[in-house]
Amino acid sequence: MPPFLLLETICIFLFSRVPPSLPLQEVHVSRETIGKISVASKMMWCSAAVDILFLLDGSNSVGKGSFERSKHFAITVCDALDISTERVRVGAFQFSSIPHLEFPLDSFSTQQEVKAKIKRMIFKGGRTETGLALKYLLNRGFPGGRNASVPQILVIVTDGKSQGHVALPAKQLKEKGVTVFAVGVRFPRWEELHALASEPREQHVLLAEQVEDATNGLFSTLSNSAICSSTTPDCRVEAHPCERRTLEMVREFAGNAPCWRGSRQAPAVLAAHCPFYSWKRVFLAHPATCYRTTCPGPCDSQPCQNGGTCVPEGLDGYQCLCPLAFGGEANCAPKLSLECRVDLLFLLDSSAGTTLDGFLRAKAFVKQFVQAVLSKDSRARVGVATYSRELLVAVPIGEYQDVPDLVRSLDGIPFRGGPTLMGSALRQAANRGFGSATRTGQDRPHRVVVLLTESRSEDEVAGPARHTRARELLLLGVGSEAVRAELEEITGSPKHVMVYSDPQDLLNQIPELQGKLCSRQRPGCRTQALDLVFMLDTSASVGPENFAQMQSFVRSCALQFEVNPDVTQVGLVVYGSQVQTAFGLDAKPTQAALLRAISQAPYLGGVGSAGTALLHIYDKVMTVQRGARPGVPKAVVVLTGGRGAEDAAVPAQKLRNNGISVLVMGVGPVLSEGLRRLAGPRDSLIHVAAYTDLRYHQDVLIEWLCGEAKRPVNLCKPSPCMNEGSCVLQNGSYRCECRDGWEGPHCENRFLRRSR
Known about the structure:
This protein is an alpha/beta fold. Helix content is 30%, strand content 27%.
């Protein structure tokens, strides 16, 4: 065979192997609404006098599997039909090369008989002659039907890939009064379905692959057209945005390549440049409107209180998933208590920044809290203060022991307006918010300040917050997302901050606040010297949302240490498309600067290599030149989803051999073998199921770091000597033996020989 003929044969084969497009119809509604659409599809019932004929595509392009799904759709529709000789009659055709009558409309008079017959239909195969089947119906009508004396509905289930013309016979059928639904199956050609369907087409084109949605859509259209009222009066048909997406294979010009062509004049082969094409997948989206029926559900009345989640069970039942503090109570009804002895001062922002609405929300929160938590036997005493320009103690702690009296006193607290001087208010609350009595030891109750605000302070808060915490007061913050960072700085920990998104969400924070009031911080190891580097996986497999979860977790961990050049130094390395030192060990000498820098760390994306990042830490981060301190314990915490860890075991061991501890926090449902090798032989691996669960493992991480901070260190690991000098241990200290040309305690200075 001549070479050019062989090339032509190969090209034709390659192009014929292009896969078909992959469409998807999707209704863009909430998960709750999808559930309601599904429930409504099971509630629908059509009992009118109507003839319904199913026309099922049994051609080879549909295939046996999709033909079975077409049958399943038809059976599901029959579940909602009052089938009898006087009411709904059902018949079925199967079409491929020729139309085949499976059973006429007057064959069966019960739902069970019709469903059993559809179930026994056998796939025939052949060409897709949709037009031929439509012409058969035009000429002979609906077999066994009642002609035009009752509404006639034709439900065509096909992939829309007819081998003949369909528009004209479909138009003629519709002109005779037949209502046509075009229901796609497998990978339908949407243009042909639109040509088949009645007007309005958006209400008559469906997708059989989504059975409950398609059934709902069909009966919603019948209800709108008054052919049959298929739902209860409380249900309603609504328009929802939806989209039909198609994954197309598109040919793109990729360049020219040498090829050979035959000559017309003589039997010869000529060299030439021929175009070369590649194939690319492209999503094409077609916005549409889908009409679906939803019915009132048991959860519409929001029966679950205090942040409980309502889960429908059947048509009328529901179950409340309650927060921990309300577990076991009907509808998550309040049943909270404080088991510790506590003096609690609510500090409400009454400044112009919060506004009157925000102040009223804060008062409502306090009222609902005391009603849910306090009782006759409660060991808690509550007070309320407001602030703007200055602090005003509106309800002194312990003044009201009776809850109704306390609630009435809250109603009389006025909104004041003025500047937001939160720092001044914190200092005054520490000095006079808890009265003048001074009790010590076990006789003194746990003292807590709960700050409620929606606006940032206009004065400095870090110093007053440290002053307040130094008085052994627990600071808790409740506020909007806009003030989260400031509240974390004031309280000293993200664990002590509760953020809400709307007024109802604010009330949902009551159980969480109740749980925090009696908790006491463990001492940890704040005064232990430590050089600590966090290494974060910011590759594309992690994603920006999970990276934000990691940032929040690292900020929370950093708050557990005394950050300054003499105690704890923290560095951060991120890796993805590249490895980058976000900041070195000696770059952020204060906690405030450290927290800001963690929030500003970049998300890189791309493909990450944990091994490359560990070598980067070895060479460019954990060195004396970059801020590491001789004689101080050193640790690296790796946070990763596991991808890109295959090459990390050897670099991790290199760090460990150099006196640097390495802990791996592997995130994901299953730990990869690469992560297990990276963790090494010691117990240096924490498995986290999801990024949102990182916070639950903070205590374990801090405990591990505290243990590493107390381990004995080798002063020469990592070596404090620069410029390839050798570290020698000597009498509990060390000295550096420098190479020729270098001098100084750490071989940091170049030695210059003087010329004579």
